[in-house]
Design brief:
744 residues; alpha/beta; 15 helices; binds adenosine-5'-triphosphate
Length: 744
């Protein structure tokens, strides 16, 4: 099975132009004169397979790998190498029949890598190759003069080379990666631990605060429950009490109003009765009036009597007058009266003596005198006396009539007064009764009123108490809700059953106690603290999970490392055994006897990183490690040889070739490039070399850079590289006969 298909160089070192080498046979040879550019081909392999040491490609910097101009050819801007592998048997773990790897280096030192035309990282190339058991500078590319490198290497380096050859690099790579990861994990663990340590006191503090807050919250809840029941009961009680007072008070007030009215009325009655004096005065007045009427009547009666007496007297007088008149014709005149008349007449006649003219007149006068005398002595029926009496009688009659009328009137008046008096008296009696009733009424009203007032007073006291309790209730509500939060206001929806009122007092005490407890246990900024505690503990939990994850991954990394180590050890051990067996076989074959094998060594060394401290320098410095290595023990036939140092150049070459071939036999790489490894061999050994190479080629493709005729004779394809003074390598496929010519 041929894995390597071709390599293409362009601008790489002396290969200015695109040159392609196709490897169609198990053994290919590259021949050409010294300095023609053969080794550049081997280096092109190193380059394209990701070699990072420019030195190992005989350069100082990347630019040295780019064709630098020679002859007529101007220098290239980039060096390009492409290698093509057959992947039909999945040498590489990718699903393509062919795998091409390309590398370009530009003059500015920038490198590009491509796998099957896609740009990739160096790391991808290395991983891909490691899986196919190909390394950049592994045992399968042996540069010129490098054949005895494995002999010159230190035991430690040698061990590493063998490990590489055994394909353990991948495991080592993995192990190193895991160790790196583990180290990083430990760093992370430390970081997380220190972070946790940092926040631990804060968490402790917050936890304490939170516990306090939670305790306060439980007290608050207790207060809320108890407070709500307390407030509910208190309000119920107060409402009931208010309603009770109201219902009890209402009829009392109504009754009092009625009583007030009634009392007013009764009082008015009494007041009216108080006006009885007036009636009494009225009685007195009437009595006086009656008396005066009586007196008037008496007087009138007396007067009437008097008048009646006068009437009687006048009537008697009248009767006697009338009697006298009746007796007048028989009347006798007293002598003296007649003598007087005579005298009067004589006086009259004497007065008229001497005057005859007056005689008549005197006569008339005497006549008058006599007539007047008679008249005066005469009792006249129509005499003025009777008339007078009659007139007086008529007067008296009128008077009597008048008096009788008056008397009648007076009598009537008296009668009416008496009637009035009686009525008044009766009225006074009646009033007395009414006032008596009113007094009684006032008394009953007042006593009822008193009773009602005292009931009202007791209700008023109850009302005062109610108001006092209501104030307390309002204050309690305010205080509790201030302390226990506004949720307390839902107390009205709390349901309660009946209980004795006295229990409410105990409850009140409990509420007070809880209020004090809550106030004492309060932590300010509870919300922020809880929030912070939650955040910080979440962070801590996150960190602890992280720590757990890290520890888990550290654990699994350790297991992985252990497994890798075990695998490395096992594979190394079994690989070493096989190598030793093959090494010994090849060695005895080449030397015609003797014996050779690799031995595992363990040495105490002091190291600072990769730097080894030589023994006896400074034993305080560095880290003591037990270093494992591989020693080569050789035993030449018929020679007493102790150690490699005593071997000749050819012997060294043979030994190293035997070892290299042994290694490749045990773990054959897809191809091997050997750059003039056969240079130091004599003819006999060249033949043996050719035989072994042929044997190897059954399992690994061989590309042999050589000047050796024998070696060339084993190759299926021979490439000749020439330079012919132009400084530019030229490539040509040639036949064996030409090859011998070209190689010269
Ligand atoms: P020998 O048989 O002596 O080992 P060789 O055939 O292996 O020789 P190389 O060593 O491969 O020859 O080729 C070296 C040649 O490549 C030298 O002539 C050198 O000048 C040339 N060379 C090296 N680097 C460059 C470069 N960057 N540009 C041009 N030529 C270069």
């Amino acid at each position: 099975m041929l894995h390597l298909k071709s390599i293409e160089l362009s601008g790489f070192k002396s290969f200015a132009k695109k040159s392609v080498l196709e490897f169609t046979t198990p053994v290919s040879a590259i021949v050409g004169p010294n300095g023609s550019g053969k080794s550049n081909v081997a280096e092109a392999f190193r380059f394209v397979l990701g070699e990072q040491s420019i030195k190992s490609m005989r350069g100082k910097k990347g630019e040295d790998l780019i064709f630098n101009g020679a002859g007529g050819e101007s220098r290239a801007n980039r060096a390009f190498v492409k290698v093509v592998f057959d992947n039909s048997n999945r040498l590489f773990s990718v699903d393509f029949p062919e795998v091409t790897i390309e590398r370009v280096v530009h003059r500015d030192g920038v490198n590009e890598y491509l796998i099957n035309g896609s740009q990739v990282r160096l790391r991808d190339v290395l991983e891909l190759l490691a899986r196919a058991h190909i390394g950049a500078s592994g045992h399968h590319i042996i540069s010129q003069g490098e054949a005895d490198k494995i002999l010159n290497a230190s035991t430690r380096e040698r061990k590493s080379m063998i490990e590489d050859a055994l394909g353990l690099k991948l495991y080592q790579y993995k192990r190193a990666e895991s160790e790196k990861k583990l180290e990083k994990t430990f760093e992370n663990i430390q970081q997380v631990e220190s972070l946790r340590k940092e926040i631990a006191p804060h968490i402790r503090f917050l936890k304490k605060q939170t516990e306090k807050i939670e305790k306060a919250e439980s007290v608050r809840l207790e207060l809320e429950t108890l407070g709500q029941e307390y407030l509910r009961r208190e309000e119920d009680y107060l409402n009931k009490e208010r309603d009770l007072i109201h219902t009890e008070k209402k009829p009392i007030l109504a009754r009092l109003k009625v009583l007030d009215e009634e009392l007013g009325n009764a009082r008015k009655i009494l007041e009216n009765f108080g006006k009885k004096n007036k009636k009494d005065f009225e009685v007195l007045d009437i009595e006086a009036e009656i008396a005066s009427a009586r007196a008037e009547k008496d007087r009138l009666m007396r007067e009437l009597g008097k008048v009646e007496g006068s009437v009687e007297a006048q009537e008697r007088m009248l009767r006697s007058e009338k009697d006298r008149i009746t007796n007048a014709e028989e009347k006798t005149v007293r002598l003296r009266d007649v003598e007087e008349l005579q005298s009067d007449i004589e006086d009259e006649i004497k007065s008229a003596e001497g005057d005859s003219n007056n005689l008549i007149k005197v006569l008339y006068r005497v006549l008058d005198k006599i007539s007047s005398f008679i008249k005066s002595k005469k009792v006249d029926t129509n005499s003025p006396g009777v008339k007078e009496v009659e007139r007086a009688l008529s007067e008296l009659g009128k008077e009597k009539e008048k008096l009788e009328k008056e008397l009648k009137r007076s009598d009537e008046r008296e009668k009416s007064l008496r009637e009035k008096y009686e009525n008044l008296k009766k009225e006074i009696e009646k009033d007395k009764d009414t006032s008596h009733d009113a007094e009684k009424k006032v008394f009953t009203i007042m006593s009822e009123e008193n009773e009602l007032r005292s009931r009202e007073e007791s209700l008023r006291i109850r009302e005062e108490q109610y108001k006092h309790l209501f104030e307390n209730f309002k204050r309690d509500l305010e205080e509790i809700s201030k302390i226990a939060g506004p949720s307390i206001l839902g107390f009205r929806s709390v349901s309660v059953t009946h209980e004795d009122r006295s229990k409410q007092e105990d409850r009140r005490h409990d509420v007070e106690r809880l209020k004090i407890r809550l106030e004492e246990s309060g932590v300010s900024g509870a919300g922020d603290i809880m929030k912070e505690f939650k955040e910080v503990s979440e962070r801590d939990e996150f960190l602890s999970r992280e720590l757990l994850d890290l520890e888990k991954s550290a654990e699994s990394l350790k297991t992985l490392i252990k497994e890798l180590e075990e695998r490395l050890n096992e594979e190394f051990k079994s690989g070493l055994e096989k190598i030793n067996k093959e090494f010994n076989t090849l060695f005895t074959m080449m030397f015609g006897g003797g014996e050779a094998h690799l031995t595992l060594t363990k040495e105490k060394k002091r190291r600072i990183g990769d730097l080894e401290i030589e023994e006896g320098i400074d034993q305080e410095v560095g880290e003591e490690v037990i270093e494992e290595g591989l020693d080569i023990a050789v035993n030449l036939p018929r020679k007493k040889i102790r150690g490699l140092a005593m071997l000749s150049g050819g012997e060294r070459a043979l030994t190293s070739i035997a070892l290299l071939f042994a290694i490749t036999e045990v773990n054959p790489p897809p191809f091997i490039i050997l750059d003039e490894t056969d240079a130091a061999l004599d003819e006999a050994n060249s033949k043996k070399y050719g035989d072994i190479a042929e044997r190897l080629s059954k399992r690994s493709q061989l590309i042999l850079i050589t000047h050796n005729r024998e070696t060339m004779s084993r190759a299926g394809v021979i490439y000749g590289v020439t330079m012919s003074g132009t400084g530019v390598s030229k490539l040509l496929s040639i036949a064996f006969d030409q090859a011998v010519e070209v190689a010269k």
